[in-house]
Every structure is written in C-alpha cells, then in structure tokens.
Amino acid sequence: MRVVNGLNDFKGKISASVITFGIFDGVHKGHSLILKKTVHEAKRLKVKSVCITFWPSPKKSPLLYSLQHRLNLLAQYGLDICIVVNINKGFSQVNTENFVKDILVKRFHIKTIVIGKDFRFGKKRSCNVDDLIRYAKKYSFKVFSVGLVKYKKENISSTRIRGYILKGELQKAEKMLGRKVSILGTVVRGRHVATRYLNLATANINPHHEVLPPDGVYQVNVDIYSKHFKGVCYIGKRPTLNLKRKVVEVHILNFKKSIYGKELYVTFKNKIRNDRKFRSLIELKKQINIDFSKIS
Question: Which residues in the chain land under pLDDT 50?
Fold first, then answer.
C-alpha cells in the first residue's frame, strides 16, 4: 500500500478508482467490511483501490490507535493507495460537493465509493449517504453503503471499543475489533528502575496516546523484528517504589537485544492481576515470579 501525506502531495495519475474514506479508528469489524468491499470492487473493475483517511481526528475524544498503527492495519487489506489528509480549519470548512467534484471525480476518476450507513462528512458533518447518492447521480459514479455491524445487539463503534478497553473488558473489545487488543509503541529510555531494584530487564514503551487497559499486570505477546515473543506488561505508577509517573513496561521472555527507538506491538492476552503496593521489594519480587509462572 502506497501512503501519501496529503492530497496536494499525490502526484500520480489514476485513470479510475474505487474509493472509501473515513477515520477508521481501530479498524474494527465494521470498518473491515467496508475495506474488503472497496478492494473487491476495485479488483472486479480492474481499477485502483484508494482509502482517504484523516489525521488528527476531527472528533474531540482520544483515538484508539496512533496513525501508524492504523496505517499498518489498513495495509493488510491490500489497498493500493492510502492518502492521509490533515484536518485543519480550512479543510473542515470545505464544501462537500466541491470535494466530490474536484477531488474524487476530477483527480481520482471515481467509479464507486464505499461507505458505512452512518457516514457523515464536511462542515458540521452535514453530508450524509443521501447527499452522496445525489452527487453520484450528478457526476456518474456509484455509492455502495455497508450496513452497521452489531455485537450482541450493540452497534460496533470505536467509541464503544474505547470504553470497553478503558474498563478492562478486553474480551468485549476483542469481539468488536475482530482481533485482540493491542498497542503500537516506541521503546524509550527509562530510569532503569526495574533493573536497579528488581534485577529485571524491561522495555519502557511510549504508546503515543493509544488507549490503554486499566493499571495492572498482563500476559502479552510482543511482535518485533517480525518475530513473536511471550511477555509480561506492567501498566501503572509503581506504588511500591512511591513513584508518580505512569509507565508502560514490557518484559520480553528470552530476549536480550537492545531495542531503544524500535517500534513494537504489545498484544494483550489476559490480565494476571491488578496493580497494588507491596510492603517490600522482596514481596514484589516474589509476586513477579508468581506472575511469570502464569504465562502459558
């Protein structure tokens, strides 16, 4: 998948395309149907599949995933091109029909647009599916609208998934995502607290504001260098050491390489225990050994 930062930076020529656009935060089961349909239609028509996504989000609530995490997932669907559009004041005021005419029709020669039934776009999110259908008749392209996907009578949405993760209801979040809950983070230099006090090598993770489960100790899988490792992830403020700053630390089993500055995926398998304060470092070390014994 070719990633382009901004519509103005796209210099290629496209004779025809099938397009979808949206934030796609979480790339959940509902998004999956839209993306698969986009790629399927493009292949059927023998044209390019194009995804237009937005960063930062026009919504006020925090996103589930960082942009890079989202792009990595979008690439798995076999899209030809993904264009990341910066949401600024000027773009948020854009006339929706002008966007359709000048961008989708004239530049990308759109044949079909694939969107969800809850689609909204433009100033004050005023453009909906009916508006797109009206534009499609005027400018000779098709609209394919994908129905909402439900899990136990609830519409699947990024907002619901975010709420489940924050409450620690990871299984419900997994059902809506279609995969286990994960974060993509960069390994940063920490204060070597785990090494100094616990003789334990950990990787300090900057999760780039991705949504985290509640504080505690988790069994995780770690993906780095295209390899999979078992690990334990700690999220919290290390109360036994009376520290204030919240950290995300991962101990990767049977791994000793220096990985500062590298990106890794941390996928949550299950929660081992809640975070709590121990009376001494000796007790904490004993508990850590117990935690490690629960890794399967």
Answer: none
Q: What is the DSSP letter of 58?
A: S
State the DSSP string of 251-275: EETT-----TT-EEEEEEEEEEEE-
Beta-bridge partner residues of 267: 182, 221
Q: Which helix (H) or strand (E) holds 133?
A: helix 129-139
Cβ burial, residue 165 (10 Å; 0-12/13-18/19+): buried
SS (H, E, C) 238-249: CHHHCCCCCEEE
Cβ 286 vs Cβ 91: under 8 Å? no
In whole angstroms, give the CA distance from residue 161 to residue 26: 8
**Model's pTM, two decimal places?**
0.92
* Structural domains of the chain, with CATH: 2-155 (3.40.50.620), 181-293 (2.40.30.30)
* Burial class (CB within 10 angstroms; exposed 0-12, middle 13-18, buried 19+) of 160: middle
**Tokens encoding 59:** 């919504």
Task: Record the tokens describing residue 129, joined without a space.
Answer: 């599916």
**Which pLDDT score, from 0 to 100, does residue 77 have?**
97
According to the model, what pLDDT value does residue 194 have?
Answer: 65
Residue 60 identity (one-letter amino acid): K
Return the half-sphere exposure (C-beta side, CA atoms, 13 A cut-off) of residue 211.
Answer: 22
Distance from C-alpha of 203 to C-alpha of 229, rounded to nearest angstrom: 13
| Residues 40, 22: Cα–Cα separation, whole Å | 18
CA 170 to CA 233: how far, in whole Å? 15
Q: What is the pLDDT of residue 89?
A: 59
Q: Which of 152, 179, 153 is nearest to 165 (CA)?
A: 179
Distance in angstroms (rounded) separating the CA atoms of residues 130 and 202: 53
- Spatial contact of 91 and 17, defined as CB atoms under 8 Å apart: no
The Cβ of residue 70 has, within 10 Å, a number of other Cβ atoms equal to: 23
Q: Is 124 left (phi over 0), alpha (psi -120 to 50) or beta?
A: left
